[in-house]
Specification:
The protein is built from four helices and seven strands, in the order ααββαβββββα. The protein is an alpha+beta fold. The radius of gyration is 16 Å and the shape is globular. The N and C termini lie far apart (42 Å).
Length: 158
Amino acid sequence: MPNGLSAPVMMDTIERYFVLLQSHAPAEVMLDEVLTADFRTGFVDGYVWQGSDGLREFLQTRSEFFDEAHEIRQISDPDPLPGSRWGARTRLWFFLRRRQPGAAVSEQFTGLAFHRWEFQPGEQPSGWRVAAQMVEGFAQLNSNAKTLFARPDRGLST
């Protein structure tokens, strides 16, 4: 796809994002390696974290999860957006685990999440960057995940 975003490059960009997210990389590293300066994440028609300060808040909010996995189950073809950005949608399975202080066992959060992504071309060697990862909805949430995502207008209910 000349001057566009191919599906393999898009998958690579998403995977680079999740590797950093799941390893609890600092905001500065994520911005340097895979995110745009105006990166935003959150819930469509709900709470949104944006820019470097928003990213730091988002990472702090989810820092209690010590074990996690994200597996893309379906991805749309990339579509051009205004300017040089491209968009796509994913359906992914997620697993998160946390252990509250004093708890005898950890809590698990599982389900499917539907995301709308935005990508922007970046400088080499990093390639493309994630400009947005917005949650459009959920399915098959376990009870813990239903509680965590119960108020998208307020972010995560941790």
